[in-house]
Amino acid sequence: MLPVVAIVGRPNVGKSTLFNRLTRSRNALISAYPGTTRDRQFGEVHLDGRHFIIIDTGGITEETDDVGKLITKQALRAIEDADKVIFMVDARSGITPEDKMIAETLRRCGKPLTLAVNKTEGMDPAMGVADAYELGLPSPVALSAAHGTGSSELIARLFPDASETTEAEDDGSQPGAIKLAIVGRPNVGKSTLTNRMLGEERVIVHDSPGTTRDSIFIPLERFDKHYTLIDTAGVRKRGKVHEVPEKFSVVKTLQSIESAHVVLYVVDARIAVSEQDLKLLGFVLECGKALVIAVNKWDGMSEHDRDHAKATIDRHLDFVSFARVHFISALHGSGVGNLFESVNEAYESATKKLSTPLLTRLLQQAIVTHQPPLVHGRRVKLRYAHPGGSNPPTIVIHGNQLNALPESYRKFLAHFYQKKLNLHGTPVLIEYKSSENPFATKR
Fold it and tell me: Which three-class secondary structure state does DSSP give residue 248?
């Protein structure tokens, strides 16, 4: 399981800016006003040879209003879920009573802690961190999240050994088994579906000890194929709407997604697709995981309701159109057996061996089908393509001025390769490698 790092601190010290910097995204909303971030934000970091999940949190405050209490509760939950914590303070405003209160809270939680002093741009680093020593915490790191300075030192301080973030834990699964994570919001029928899949013509099924984060790995053999079902045991039952928005352990779900070869995402047909579904599916796509979608509780719905649900699902899930969609009833078992066919297909597509001659030939066909747009009045040249990895299939394309191509053309190429290579259930990643001009530096 990937380690989890939480960023905490009082409002407006730059937590979301650091989150966006490390995840190389703009997923966290940033403004100059305190309290912009309220709910936890989750992302994946690949930086300096380290790989981990990071959580952005709202500011921890002593405010007594309902919203302030909920924001603080979310942040404290993130600390509880995390393996390590980044405590961020502001070099320009100095150490405040709120900082001291948070430091005391972090001391009690006993988690490995890295102190980051942000907004040190234009300052002598030693002077920027001087005030932070009064917190009595480990030696601080000078940082400018906005400019990116100090990020590498922060990562190295968090994980002195890069292998700490990449070594796989022994989950007791059989070598060669397809790891299948069953994921979805609370109360969509994941547990019912898991039980139904385990009871379907099973040969060997036994519980395996979970990891320290309480995920359960369940080996299963079906028709001479081996699987490891990853049960997201940390998912909580949904409570009242006005309480904390996220009623399940997101961290455990994200770790299950990261550990899987294929994600089986379960949607409730009666509720269709929620914002929470879109966030989790976005993380699946970001991780490049093979995907199968199961629309559960299909039994007992009228024809009108089924048509409405299909239209809603088609509209909202267009961004994962590569995934097979199955309409099932986990309770009664209808359609469940067909899920294994799509899981096998998705895994085989994600791990398919590709060759340079084939990819280059298809690239030329793609160019004939749809010429790349002009850049500064000149046609971009795409010369050849070769495989860059699997799970997800990665295709590296060489040429000149490729970085000037619009994102729409990258999507066209991904869709073209997906169709021509008959890849179902997996995204296709297109990477560009632009040729250097040998005369660019000569006069």
Answer: coil
Six token digits for residue 110: 């006993």
Where in the sequence is the domain holding 343, given as residue range(s)?
A: 178-350
Q: Is the pLDDT of residue 28 over 60?
A: no
Q: Has residue 125 been placed in a domain?
A: yes
Which CATH number fits the domain that encloses residue 413?
A: 3.30.300.20
Residues 21 and 138 in one domain: yes
pTM for the full model? 0.66
Alpha helices in 190-335 (DSSP H): 190-198, 250-259, 275-286, 303-316
* Domain-ending residue, one of 111, 143, 165: 165
Query: In 3D, which of 249, 14, 276 has the Cα closest to residue 120?
Result: 14
**What percent of the chain lies above the pLDDT cut of 90?**
39
d(CA 140, CA 280): 34
The CATH number assigned to the domain holding 318 equals 3.40.50.300
User: What average pLDDT does range 383-393 have in this prediction?
Assistant: 92
Query: How many domains, the chain?
Result: 3
Positive or negative: CA dihedral 398, 399, 404, 406: negative
The band of 370, judged by pLDDT with boundaries at 50, 70 and 90, is very high
Give helix 250-259 / helix 275-286 axis angle, nearest 10°: 40
Contacts of 344 (CB under 8 A, 6+ apart): 178, 225
Determine which of 81-90, 187-196, 305-314 has the lowest per-residue pLDDT on average.
Answer: 187-196
- The pLDDT of 240-258, averaged and rounded, is 56
* Alpha carbon distance 78, 250 (integer Å): 10
135-163 burial, b at 16+ Cβ within 10 Å, e below that, comes to bebeebbbbbbeeeebbebbbebbbeeee
Strand ranges of the sheet holding 113-118, from the earlier edge strand across to the other edge: 41-47, 50-56, 4-8, 84-90, 113-118, 141-142
- Residue 53 has a CB neighbour count (10 Å cut-off) of 26
Residue for token pair 């010369």: 383
Q: Are 238 and 245 in contact (CB under 8 A)?
A: no
- 439, part of any domain: no
Q: How far is C-alpha 241 from the chain's CA centre? A: 25
Q: How confident is the model at residue 342 (pLDDT cuts 50, 70, 90)?
A: very high
443 in a domain, yes or no? no
Q: Select from 350, 371, 397 the last residue of a domain.
A: 350
Pair 288, 242 in one domain: yes
Average pLDDT in the 79-99 region?
91
Let me know if residue 173 belongs to a domain.
no
Rounded to the nearest 5 degrees, what angle is found at the Cα of 57, between the Cα atoms of 56 and 59?
A: 135
